[in-house]
Amino acid sequence: MTTATNLNKPGKIHVELWTDFICPWCGIGERNFLDALQAFPHCKEVDITIRSFRLRPDSVPTLVTDVLREKRDLLPDEIAAAIDRLEKLGAEAGLSYRLAGSWSCDTMDGHRLVKLAQKTQQSKALFRRLFRAAMCEEQAIHDPDVLRVLAREVGLAPASVDDVLDGDQYRDDVLADEAAMREHGGRGIPFFVLNGCLNYSGALSTDIFLSALNKTWNSNTISTDCEQQKDFATLCGPDGCALPGN
User: Fold this and answer.
1) CA-CA distances (angstroms) from residue 165 to 91, 112, 174?
2) Cα–chain center distance at 216
3) Which 3 state secondary structure label does DSSP give 236?
4) How many Cα atoms are found within 13 Å in the side-chain-facing hemisphere of 6?
5) What is the pLDDT of residue 219?
6) Which of 7, 18, 67 is nearest to 199 (CA)?
7) Strand 198-201 relative to strand 228-230, pairing
8) d(Cα 208, Cα 222) in Å, to the nearest integer?
9) pLDDT tens column, 202-243
10) How far is it, in rounded angstroms, from Cα 138 to Cα 94?
């Protein structure tokens, strides 16, 4: 994708972040971005919109350890070592990951509830609550009863939550987010798009994100040649998540 959208307005930066509740690299990437934002002198002129992306659409809920054993052909000690390394990277970013008991699943219902929460300005709070439940608390966020409890914690009206979970509201909105990411050239998450043009994939460093913010701020053109930067070592995609090396 080579043309910026009309979101690219001088004096403002609009960030779209495609992410999922079951993506450990997404939590690390978002923390790195927020650290960069704190160091950015125009941080008050930056807004962030969370977009939906499901890593495991239409999948049967499975423990992550089983996925690593069955799909990556890893031995138990290799699985434990990979999880330990990823949990340590999460800890460095201030995240208390507990991944050994986490679930790989279709997160459509959670994303639909986040769309509902947008109506009451609670979408970021709900997203982060579901992320913490999945990545730090080993909760089964594919279970509608678990989702009901978590949504109630954030303050969503129980009747509205039931309406969503009992039907298919906001499904098209989730699918539209996923289609938009593909149009931007995204194939894995976390995926950041600044002002509709500058695309960054992966849990990139704080310095890279700060450079991206400065570059976007200093661009005075409405249409420009877009660029991409990817770190495949810190991405999750349809084939699973990259595992950190020793």
Assistant:
1) 33, 8, 14
2) 21
3) strand
4) 0
5) 81
6) 18
7) parallel
8) 23
9) 999 999 999 999 999 988 544 456 778 999 999 999 889 999
10) 17
Q: How many CA atoms lie within 13 A of 18 on its CB side?
A: 31
CA distances from 107 to 113, 118, 124, 140, 237 (A): 10, 17, 16, 10, 14
* Helices 123-136/24-39 angle, 10° precision: 130
| Residue entry with tokens 């991409």 | 228
Give residue 220's pLDDT.
56
Residue 111 and residue 97: Cα distance in Å, rounded?
Answer: 21
- The single-letter DSSP state of residue 51 is E
Q: Six-digit token pair at 36?
A: 């960069």
Query: Of 22, 10, 235, 31, which is closest to residue 139 (Cα–Cα)?
Result: 22
Report yes or no: 122 and 156 within 8 Å, Cβ to Cβ: yes
Q: Tokens 């990139």 — which residue?
A: 204
Q: Which residues, at least 6 apart from 240, have a Cβ–Cβ distance to it below 8 Å?
A: 67, 71, 72
Q: Return the residue matching tokens 């906001």.
A: 170
Give every residue of the chain whose pLDDT is below 70, as ranges: 1-10, 220-225, 246
Which spans in 16-141 are helix H?
24-39, 64-71, 76-92, 108-118, 123-136
Provide Rg for the chain, Cα atoms.
18
All residues at 6 or more sequence positions from 243 whose CB lies less than 8 Å from its CB, including other chains: 72, 82, 85, 86
As a whole number of angstroms, the distance between CA 35 and CA 46 comes to: 13
Residue 199 — φ and ψ, nearest 5°?
Answer: -110, 130
